[in-house]
Amino acid sequence: MERLQKILAQAGVASRRKCEELILAGKVQVNGETVTVLGTKADPATDTITVNGKNIGAEQKLYLLFNKPKGVITSASDPQGRKIVTDYLKGIKERVYPVGRLDYDTEGLLLLTNDGEFAHLLTHPKHHVPKTYLATVMGVPHGNDLDKLKQGIMLEDGMTAPAEVEYHDVNPDNKQAVISITIHEGRNRQVRRMFEAIGHPVIRLKRIAFGKLYLGTMKRGVYRHLTKSEVESLRQSAAAARKNDQP
Ligand code: URA
User: Fold this and answer.
1) pLDDT tier at 41, thresholds 50, 70, 90
2) How far apart are CA 47 and CA 44, in angstroms?
3) Which residue, by CA, sits nearest to atom 3 of ligand 1?
4) Which residue has the higher pLDDT, 128 or 139?
5) Is 65 in a helix, a strand, or coil?
């Protein structure tokens, strides 16, 4: 037995907070009875749970790995009519949504799912699942500058947590360098702001790993389903990161 709001969130209905609102608004029924008490428990395996009359058990859980091209917005809709990630998910009928965000101009590994609990686990600020990026930057940063990024650097919203930073490639004319950076947070435009802070603005940004999951050689604009063990490994990354965080 689980709390109803947790079951609904896990089924991808909405965030847990939104699910609580749905319960309070009388939109949720368990075995035909409307439930408005938060914390009511149910068993998703045996109870029939509906939201606005729709059976929530009917939707299969999907976990997708997508290679987002730049110039695509990480959002379910865009009033300005720009391309959105779900435009690329031909053949997926389920309503999946992105796990966290990549900027419009950032490319690379993006997870999408209809499993709200999974998305919450991976994006929760306390869980710090490591994310690795290749940043092509203007000029070649000095080792001392990369040390600053490794130790943590002051941004307008506070110090960044320690990061792993390495030279990946240096352009022969020394006008650009590609740096690999692994961060354990997910602040807005964080990698771009970190490199700006050391005077080497990002020209191109690509996410290549999320936890132990790598983008590999997937083509841009293409998606694939994650395997069961990849989903499990991501869950474990979040759990391990949370444990490390405890004093
Ligand atoms: N950091 C950024 O600056 N942009 C992203 O899209 C992701 C991380």
Assistant:
1) very high
2) 5
3) 189
4) 139
5) strand
| Catalytic residue set | 103
Q: Which of 224, 221, 226 is nearest to 68 (CA)?
A: 221
Which of 99, 187, 190, 206 has the most ligand 1 atoms within 8 A of CB, as the residue to mutate?
190
- Amino acid identity of 70? K
**Residue 244: per-residue pLDDT:** 62
160 lines ligand 1 (CB under 6 A): no
Higher pLDDT, 97 or 196: 196
7 lines ligand 1 (CB under 6 A): no
Establish whether residue 102 lines the binding site of ligand 1, counting it when its CB lies within 6 angstroms of any ligand atom.
Answer: yes
- Full set of structural domains in the chain with CATH: 2-55 (3.10.290.10), 64-124+215-239 (3.30.70.580), 131-210 (3.30.70.1560)
Mean of per-residue pLDDT scores for the chain: 91
